[in-house]
Design brief:
2 domains, 411 residues, phosphopantothenate--cysteine ligase activity, eight-stranded mixed β-sheet
């Protein structure tokens, strides 16, 4: 695949060096198009050495090749990382005062912009308006990460990690070739892990990053669905075009999912929801006593959101899918525990995956077994989390049959 990697003039340009390497290692041909300002941060020699391609910034370079038109026309994908406030403004205005903005005007392939700037710049009304304009034109603009910025400040505006940008960019290409087999359908996906407060400082939580849930939302969007994501403590960027509801605890997730599920054709519970919570939430930080004693914390069960959804079926024809993160133990294997859970929960499908020892949580890949409601194996799959997500949607469609088998919406 022929990819244009645009690099605007921000300190985060150094991260795009790793992004370039990841794209090249995945077998893609990459042409780097930096702005003149970006070369103050990463030099031309670095880009040429790692890409194996010539690097130009100006429309008056390579005039005989008509580079200001040819680069964009020949691309299968354009990624700009970092996309500064200045680059977003110029792209929204349709300027073509350097090779990168000219390329953005010419390109008819998927375009992904990964913003990076100081928090005040990202939150300024002008930047918000520019992002809205670009998204309305079909440009995919990621949400920046929250984290440490230049200097001592922290906040939204940090460039997403190269691996996250890579996954989002390649998903756009998959989207272009994927059938719109979820077109017109409403799906709800939960992602991340809940946190159950103990006091104002501490909580019970889990290791879920939300990567698999985000992949499910991203691929459903690519296949034409209207997607609502209920994100529990997810720090990763949410795909543009997905409606997001952010929650913290299991109780908040239950309320948000049930509200969204009332109009959904499919509900996929990929979030890691706490099974237990502290019975009492202390209003002040629990202190250590001088005598060395340790407080006793009584836990109570949370509501089983998946089982409740499977039982209630908030609309006719609704498909409910659960996830089961399991570890084997003396009482059974991962698959045996998954089968018991499938029978207990009552969902139409249960996606079982092993976690721990570097598996599952926080990894780019996954290895799953999809079970039906009776505990029988529907399919097994391994690969990137986007590939796993497509497998899950394929299984949903195989279960539901033609579009007419889903519930219908009035109006």
């Amino acid at each position: 695949m022929r990819i244009v990697l645009g690099v605007a003039g921000g300190i985060a340009a150094y991260k795009s060096v790793l992004l370039l390497r990841l794209l090249r290692e995945a077998g893609h041909e990459v042409r780097v198009v930096p702005t003149r300002a970006s070369l103050e941060f990463v030099g031309r020699a670095t880009w040429e050495a790692l890409s194996g391609q010539p690097v130009t910034t100006d429309v008056f370079e390579d005039v005989d090749q008509v580079a200001h038109v040819a680069v964009g026309k020949g691309a299968d994908l354009v990624v700009v990382a970092p996309a500064t406030a200045d680059l977003l403004a110029r792209a929204a205005a349709g300027l073509a005062d350097d090779l990168l903005t000219a390329t953005l005007l010419v390109a008819r392939c998927p375009v992904l912009l990964a913003p990076a700037m100081h928090t005040e710049m990202w939150q300024h009304p002008a930047t918000s308006a520019n992002v809205a304009t670009l998204r309305a034109r079909g440009v995919h603009v990621l949400e920046p990460d929250f984290g440490r910025l230049t200097g001592a400040d922290s906040g939204p505006g940090r460039l997403p990690e190269p691996e996250a940008i890579l996954a989002a960019a390649l998903a756009l290409v998959t989207a272009r070739s994927a059938a719109d087999d979820l077109a017109g359908r409403r799906v709800v996906v939960s992602a991340g892990g809940t946190r159950e407060p103990l006091d104002p400082v501490r909580y019970l939580g889990n290791r879920s990053s939300g990567m698999q849930g985000l992949a499910l939302a991203r691929t459903a969007l690519a296949r034409g669905a209207q997607v609502t994501l209920v994100a529990a403590n997810v720090a990763l960027p949410v795909p543009a075009g997905v409606d997001v509801v952010r929650v913290g605890s299991a109780a908040e997730l239950r309320e948000a999912v049930r509200e969204a599920a009332a109009e959904a054709d499919v509900v996929v519970m990929a979030a890691a929801v706490a099974d237990f919570r502290p019975e009492t939430v202390v209003g002040t930080k629990i202190k250590k006593d001088d005598d060395g004693s340790v407080p006793s914390i009584r836990l109570v069960r949370t509501v089983d959101v998946l089982a409740e959804l499977a039982h209630d079926r908030l609309r006719d024809g609704q498909v409910v899918v659960g996830f089961a993160a399991e570890t084997g133990d003396a009482d059974g294997s991962v698959l045996e525990h998954g089968r018991a859970k499938a029978l207990r929960k009552g969902a139409d499908l249960l996606v079982v995956n092993a976690v721990g020892d570097g598996k599952g949580f926080g990894t780019a890949d996954n290895d799953v077994t999809v079970l039906d409601g009776g505990g029988d194996v529907v399919i097994t799959a391994s690969g990137s989390k986007d590939e796993i997500a497509h497998t899950v949607w394929d299984a949903v469609l195989a279960l539901a049959g033609p579009r007419s088998a889903f519930g219908t919406h009035g109006g």
